[in-house]
Write a structure and sequence with these properties.
The complex is a heterodimer of chains A (189) and B (73).
Chain A: H1 4-12, H2 16-37, H3 42-59, H4 69-85, H5 95-98, H6 115-119, H7 123-135, H8 138-149, H9 154-161, H10 165-186
Chain B: H1 3-7, H2 10-14, H3 20-31, H4 34-51, H5 60-72
The chains are: A mainly alpha (189), B mainly alpha (73).
Chain lengths: 189, 73
Amino acid sequence: MASEAELIARSKGGDPEAFSELISRYEDRIFNLAHKVCAGLPAEAEDVYQETFLTAFKKLPKFRADSDLGTWLYRIASNLCWMRFRKKKAEPVVPILDRPHSHEEGPQFRDWSGGPEELSRKKALREAVEAALAALAVEYRLVLVLRDIEGRSGEETAEVLGISLAAVKSRLHRARLFLRDRLDQAVAP
Amino acid sequence: MKCRDMLKRLSEYIDRELDPSLCRHIDSHMKGCKPCVAFIKTLRKTVGVLKRQPGAAPSVHLRAELRRRLRRA
């Protein structure tokens, strides 16, 4: 099997077969990112998937050998997603952070942590997650998908998105709290 | 540590990225605050549900279409 460096070198020379082999190594990850970030919009996800690799093929001569190809592809795909959804800039409203009370005098939280495990196999919960993702502004959605669905580290997520690690942590926390609230509503009896 | 202060740090806590002394404060707070225990359990579960979301893959047709477009590029 050809090494990644060898395939990159051949692809830089315009060899589409070598680039096709590189695509095979990354396309499922890139498609999954696009699918989750373009929540509920499969045609957009398909466009992002194709445009990511077409853009990468065009820009490959500028790709630096000391960079990580996966991170670079994630960056292209994330940027394409951001361009599609950037107009929706609202912060996710998280009652526990944004309303002027805490549960000492306000809401009491229910423990449904035993429920969703069983429910996670059900279509209803998957749909609740999809709907909650779609309701998030894209900059929060990207962080949540890269960290919690794709399993990237905070540092790699910061590099992919061109933001600080502190911003990754802040957006991740707010997005998770938002999702928790939405799932709380979805599992309410 | 108040509930509200603790809730701001819970993602770092469940990701094990928090300073050990702050973790001890949170652990100690949990012993006497049932709502916060419920909150952190459901937050952990939320992250678990996200991690278990089924992966999506491109269809055979879409993979082939991308290769066709690349050969024309």
